[in-house]
Amino acid sequence: MNLEYIDFVQWPAMVVTVISAWFVGSQRPRRRMIAFWGFIVSNALWVIWGFNANAYALIVLDCALLGMNARGFKKNLNGYRAS
Question: Which of 31, 46, 65, 75 is the most exposed place for a label (fewest CB within 10 A)?
Answer without folding.
Answer: 75
